[in-house]
Design brief:
The chain has helices spanning about 1-15, 20-25, 40-60, 75-80, 95, 140-150, 160-175, 185-195, 205-210, 235-240, 260-275, 275-285, 300-320; strands at about 30-35, 60-65, 90-95, 115-130, 150-155, 180, 200-205, 215-220, 245-255. The chain is globular. Helices cover about 45% and strands about 20% of the residues. Mean pLDDT is about 90; it is low at about 1-15.
C-alpha cells in the first residue's frame, strides 16, 4: 500500500506542466529590472526604491540595469524582446509607454500588447524650470523673454517626459526654441545648472533639491496645489496657464507571455511593497503620489496606457513634432 501511495505521488508530480512547476519554484535566481534611462534620474531613483523592497518580498536579488537611449525606447525594446520567463522587469513611464508611441512612423513596440502590466508605482507633477542666472522668474516674463530672443530647451531624449511636456508647453505658448537632446537626465542637468541651456521640464522628484539649492529656478508646477517640497513655485493655474496639465507616471511591466502564475506572484509582491510604510514614505518624500486601492490594479495601468497613448498622439500632432 505504501509503495502504491509513493508511486501515485511520483506520478502526480510528473504530471505537473513545466509552466506550473516553474511558477511554484519562482524565483530561483536574480531578476533583472531594466531602467530605460541613465542612472540618477527620477525613473532610476523610483526603480531602485521599489526593486530593493520587492527583492525582499520575492526572496531573490533584483538587479537594476540602466539601458539608456532613444527617449527610453531602447531599454523598453530590450525588455520586450527578453525571455518571457519572469526574470525581466521593466520600469517604464508615461514617455516610454504612451507619449513616445505617436512619434514614430514605425514604432518598435506596442505598449498595449507587447507587455504585461504589473502596476502603477507613482505619479509626480512636472516642473517648468530655467537656468538660475536667467533674470525672468515668473511664467509670463519668461514667455516674453523666450519670444523676444533665441532660446534653448533641453530634454533627456526624443519621446521622454521632458521632451513632450515641454513640447506641449511650447505649443500652448507659441515658443519656438532650439531643441537640445541629451542621453539621459544627468547630462541635461549638468548643462542647465552650468547655464548652457535656458530651460526644460521634468518631474519634481528630480528637481526639488536642485530648486531648493538655487541651482535652477522653478517657474511653475502642474497639479491642483503647490508642492510642499518647493512651496515657492506656483501652479500653472496660478501662473496664468490653467489648461497646461501633465504628470509623469512610472509603472512596472514584464514581457508579454510571462506565465499568469508568475505575473500574479510579481504583482502580489508589488502590491505589498506599495502598501508598506517605508516605501510610501520614501516615494512621498520625493514628491511622488503613491497609488492606492484600484490604482494598484493591473487593469488600471492597462487603461492608463491606452488613455495616454491617445492623448499624447494628439499633442504630437497639434505641436507639429516631426515623426521619427
Amino acid at each position: 500500500m505504501r509503495k502504491l501511495f509513493a508511486l501515485t505521488v511520483v506520478i502526480c508530480f510528473g504530471c505537473l506542466s513545466p509552466q506550473a512547476a516553474s511558477a511554484q519554484a519562482y524565483p530561483t535566481r536574480p531578476i533583472t529590472m531594466i531602467v530605460p534611462f541613465a542612472a540618477g534620474g527620477a525613473t532610476d531613483v523610483i526603480a531602485r526604491i521599489v526593486s530593493e523592497a520587492m527583492s525582499r518580498e520575492l526572496g531573490q536579488p533584483i538587479v537594476v540595469e540602466n539601458v539608456a537611449g532613444a527617449g527610453g525606447t531602447t531599454g523598453s525594446l530590450r525588455a520586450k524582446n527578453a525571455a518571457a520567463d519572469g526574470y525581466t522587469l521593466l520600469t517604464g513611464h508615461m514617455g516610454t509607454h504612451a507619449s513616445s508611441y505617436g512619434l514614430y512612423n514605425t514604432p518598435r513596440y506596442d505598449p498595449r500588447s507587447d507587455f504585461e502590466p504589473i502596476g502603477l508605482v507613482a505619479s509626480a507633477p512636472i516642473v517648468l524650470f530655467t537656468r538660475s542666472n536667467l533674470p525672468e522668474k515668473s511664467l509670463d516674463s519668461f514667455v516674453r523673454y523666450a519670444k523676444a530672443q533665441p532660446t534653448t530647451v533641453g530634454h533627456s531624449g526624443v519621446g521622454s517626459n521632458a521632451h513632450l511636456t515641454c513640447a506641449l508647453f511650447n505649443s500652448m505658448t507659441g515658443l519656438k526654441p532650439v531643441e537640445v537632446p541629451y542621453r539621459g537626465n544627468a547630462p541635461l542637468m549638468a548643462d542647465i545648472t552650468a547655464g548652457n541651456i535656458d530651460y526644460s521640464c521634468d518631474q519634481i522628484i528630480t528637481l526639488a533639491s536642485q530648486i531648493a539649492g538655487g541651482h535652477v529656478t522653478g517657474i511653475a508646477i502642474t497639479g491642483n496645489s503647490r508642492s510642499p517640497l518647493v512651496p515657492e513655485v506656483p501652479t500653472f493655474a496660478e501662473a496664468g496657464l490653467p489648461n497646461f496639465d501633465a504628470d509623469a507616471w512610472t509603472a512596472l511591466f514584464m514581457p508579454r507571455g510571462v506565465p499568469a502564475d508568475i505575473v500574479s506572484r510579481v504583482q502580489g509582491a508589488y502590491v505589498s511593497v506599495l502598501k508598506s510604510r517605508p516605501v510610501i514614505e520614501r516615494l512621498s518624500g520625493l514628491g511622488a503620489v503613491v497609488p492606492t486601492g484600484e490604482g494598484l490594479g493591473r487593469e488600471h495601468l492597462r487603461a492608463l496606457v491606452a488613455r495616454d497613448l491617445e492623448r499624447w498622439a494628439k499633442v504630437v500632432q497639434d505641436a507639429n513634432i516631426p515623426r521619427q
